[in-house]
Amino acid sequence: MTVEQRLRQFVIENFYVSEPAELHDDTLLVSGGYVDSTGMLEVIGFLEQEFDVRIADQEMTPENLDSISRMAAFLARKRREAAAGGPTVAAAP
Amino acid sequence: MCGIAGVVLLREALPPPRLEDVGAMIQALGHRGPDACGAYRDRRAALGHTRLSIVDLAGGQQPLANEDETLWIVFNGEIFNHLELRGELEALGHRFRTRSDTEVVVHAYEAWGDAAFARFNGQFAAALWDSTAETLVLARDAAGVCPLYLAEHEGRLWFASEVKALFAGAPGLSRALDPVGLAETFTFWTVVPPQAVFQAVTELEPGHVRRISRGLGTDRAFWTPRYPAGPGEGFQGSLDEAAERVGAALGEAVRRRVLQADVPVGSYLSGGLDSSLVAALGCQARGGRFRTYSIRFEEPEYDETRYQRAVVELIGSEHQELLVRREDIAEAFPAVVEHAERPLLRTAPAPLFLLSRLVRDSGVKAVLTGEGADEMFAGYDLFREAKVRRFWGRRPASALRLRLLERLYPYLARSPVAQRALAREFFGRDRERPHAPGFAHQTRWRPTAALQRLFSPDLRELARTAQVTARLLGTLPAEFGSWVPLAQDQYLEIRTLLAGYLLSSQGDRMLMAHAVEGRFPFLDPELVELANALPARYKLRALREKHVLKRAAASHLPPEIVRRTKQPYRAPDALSFVGPRAPAWVGELLGERAVARAGVFDPRAVARLWRKCRAGSAAAQLSHSDNMALVGVLSTALLHEQLVRRRPERRAAPELGTLVDRLGEWPGSEAPLQRRCGP
Question: Signal peptide span per the entry (chain B) (predicted)?
């Protein structure tokens, strides 16, 4: 299962999407009404647990998290940083 | 308060109303008025009444009439200035048979017509039948404390205090749920009158009169909220003068509501500023034994016991507490929905349902409550949030202005402002249009409307095309744009939530489920006019809510109550319905077959929600949307079972203490001649 598929399954299950076909990889989750401002806490928790990353406060932005494709790109970037010897665990806020 | 019901013919050729229909309506409203009931009928109309005796215990039976018995009334509520009006009416030559405030309404209508309703200081729903002009007049108080529902069916107009009475009177009336009503509920948290959640039903708007004459109906507003249109308008005095005026007006409002009763009046006490002030003033007005009632919760997030007890100690009331646990909420919830008659997105009405039972069991029939203060004096977080968002929008790059958002929700375990960048996205929407109508409310309406993704595909499409937000914003008064932003926000809050949710689902319905009358000093018309006339800075000073009210309260309450951060009244939501103690009906109603049968929600989406709530309950990881979603789905399912799918057996009215049947006076009628029973 690809990262996008895992993310997609999580969003469908946890934000009770009735028509999964309507949820595209670039659908905006917050402004699209799928995830509310506190629901994003769940998304962050899932990413940290499922993909073994730590997300710093400054990384909790719509640019990183507000769609499946943005989350996938963000995770890929985190992995590249880790492979290049960058910090896998972000500094505590 | 009481229950009223009735029917009027809209076409000439129909047979006269049947007493058994009105009797069934009265029976359906029996919980509202266990003390007596009565009915009136003639060739074209019938009125029914079930009474909760509070004023003129001996002589207040209804229906009541004017001197020559051409004008009949059934009335639900109280007129707190009825003694003043009575004197005025007597001077005009009107003669009274009783001490009842209801009789004042009859003569006031004779004297002043529709203009009478604006002269009442009270809370009411009234139906007046002018048998000479064959005109029915329905009226509802300015704030909308008392409910009044209408339905047309087979050439007749039915009206009643509750929807279930309409269904009892006209069994053929469609019970189908209304897509627009559901879309409104899953946007504004409630329907906005005149919209109802049943297709065949409408609700008379607060502050309105409907006149039905020879088949034609017209609506007219006798009161709508108004705010200063410029700095030269409204209250011009200092803050100290305003606080003094507010204190005096509230004191008088409380005094009227404590003393205008022939039974003891108690008070709810949440421990917040509003109910504490009302309780303290009530105790003063009573000048002796005074009862207060509070809800306690096991969860510290909701519990306010410490503050309640501090107030009790200060005012010396006879206090009763009710500890409400999650399982109590779950157990009461079916009855709560059956009384609310609409979907609910919060469980907050349930503890109030249980508290009204405690009040009734203690022998008290009427209680003061602090509701309305947040609307009139800008107490809600929404007002503070909008102020910050507008302030920040004037300089969007300012990180300091954005950080003001963090001061808004300190009481929430999962704060919507916890992630600053995401909060910027969420609260920053529309910031280029800070004066657009609905700016303040969109942060609440959008996430709620997003729950419509749970709807079945057909309903989702109907809800989408209904465009309820645009519809609501299209009905704003012409002068709306001339008001300051806070006044606009207050107006929309009042328009959407006050009557439709607060005074109904948390007020009238939960109180009257156990025949307890709520009295609302903060909705006293004179106090409301004063509050609306005050400058915005007297109400919301920086981010300090209800500033002028706190100043007025300082001489009545300890500083720890006056200065405490506002804690909105809430109760455990989704977590009441999951876990080992959850009742079996929850799972049954959320099952695929039951969800499909109701046709409102998509069974797959509900299954996902239910799975999430059960899993999330273990770690208490449920968002505000999850909580609203589960409570909304469950309450809608209950509503469907109780009022749509199930057709209760029709039962006759209890014994009528008053029956005026004038059908026999019509030539050629086969009905019995007029008879009168009871006192």
Answer: none
